[in-house]
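note to self: the first set is below, dont mix up w the second
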Amino acid sequence: MPKPLVTVICITYNHVQFIRSCLESLVSQQCDFSYEIIVHDDASIDGTQDIIKEFYHNYPDLIIPILQKENQWSKKPGLLDVFVEKSLFSGTYIALCEGDDFWVEPDKLQKQVEILENHPECNMTCSSYLLIDNNEKRDIIQKKWETENYEDKSGRVFELADLNHSFFIKTSTAMFRNFSELYIQLDKFEFCLDIHIFYLLLKSGKGYYSKDVMAGYNRHPGGTYSGSTQHEILLTQYFILKDIYEKDGDDFVRKKYLELAFLMINLKVSGLMPGRKIKQKAIRYRNPGIVKLVKTIKPVLETKTERETFYKSFVPMQAKAIRQKMKQLFQ
């Protein structure tokens, strides 16, 4: 079997109602090159692993199953060890699809490989996506940009700065170049999530955004955080951005870090983020109180607007407004 040009990574946990559609969309890709699919299941207990085994039986030359017996996310939140075990990746390009999502087009891989080969200045590519929420479907297409870059009828080149107001990269739409240097840089961070990967790729190069709707994104309570609550997701993302900022000092990350910190302060002041909501041991013992949050955040403030937002975060908000803010954050 020839060396695969693309390694597809599918990370899943308790996605029994989604995983069949996901894997069907992955094995049905039509392209003029070979590819492989690494399916990493984080110890699902709902029958997800049975479906993965079924697909492995039917596609043994295409699917590489990694079936955990013990949940790894509960030990250390992140994209598991699969992104550290870079020796697993044979492809020149890496494509991602989470187990509760799916690919819309059978030529998704073909299109994205052609994009990256036609745009050597780009380290990654992503696309528009289909949002499925409470049985309602709508296409999400990014239209607002911070930078002025090359654009054609299919899409446009973008940079890290374009993510300032909207983190429009959906993991299941992404493909990126398989750089060995990327994994060396990932090792310095405490966590390893998609935001780390996209941040590093865009810090050292550009991306290409395709207007084509290439993936379907299912919004549901379980999400891709192994059944984590919204409070646990928020706290995890806070630690991730704090880690990246303290080790890299990038202003883009600083602003995202402050945004989450302000929300956490407001949640705590409003009594909407009690410690009992944090069940995961890996982050529960590190959950900062308001005093510690304030001491950590104040030195990071640089502008008058940031300081004003900081003080406003101490004004309790209604629970409904907070829930809406968190829903927007995790869209």
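second set (the one i keep forgetting abt)
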Amino acid sequence: MTIDPEIDVFLQQLRADWAEHPPFDSLTYPERRAVAENVRARWNQGGPVMARTAERRFDPGAGELRIRVHLPEDVPELAPVLVYLHGGGFTLFSIDTHDRLMREYADQGRFAVVGVDYPLAPEHKYPIALDRIEALMLWLKAHGTKLGLDPTRMALGGDSAGANMSFAIVQRLRARGEGRLVRAILSNYGGYDSAISDEAEAQFGGDASIMSRAEAYEYYANYLNGEAEVGDPQVYPVKADLTGFPPVLLVVAERDILAEQAAPMEQRLREAGVAAQRRVYSGAVHSFLEAMSVSAVARAAIADGAIFVKDKLSKEHP
């Protein structure tokens, strides 16, 4: 397996931009976030222009959140909506680093996208972010029409840590009797289990990779309160009861240390009777969707995700 040449352009530019800053492990977490926002800024430039974008900072019931609502042209008065949770290992990034990705989904799928700036670890450990996202989903059910959103046609998704949390939120909503509130999950290169194999680290990890095993484990350590939560199905969804889950698209980067977790996750979903699809993108690495401005593979994966969500949010879909 080789890295796609266009993805490699993305990687080389990231490395050059990171090199302009102090070593990551010498920085505090707020400093790391500032550097990460700076390094990712160039990949947010350009992209579709929305008919309307609204931003709001409020408390939906469990603590304050900042959300951003993107509405593209040619959507109904009450638009179907994808609630999107950005990646960053529960620790980094924001709706600013993922703004173009959200606009691309909105434009290509002709649905609204609500980006969520959930509280980050290690300052805010599990389950603080989940509490607030769950409260937001219930708030959108009750008040989404005020934002031009159709609360009967909502999907949930995210990348990396955001994908992980999407499964936790559906578990929580199901426990409330609100499992049907989410009609689809778009899961972009999520982490689903507590372990990364030696083989995955040898092939796709290491210091030169976009994410090594040590880095992934550090992110989980930031997020969790202790080892007792390693078996928690809201942290590692492959351990969860997935009965009654909505259709799921698992987007997999071929050269990602987390790629090995996608097949077992698909199997667990199918065993639970869930309509699950797993799509592997050749030559892609973790975070490859951010390379959309230079990568045909990234653009294809975004288009596939938009089509999946659009289909599951259509009025004709049960």
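remember for set 2: The first strand starts at residue 52 and ends at 58.
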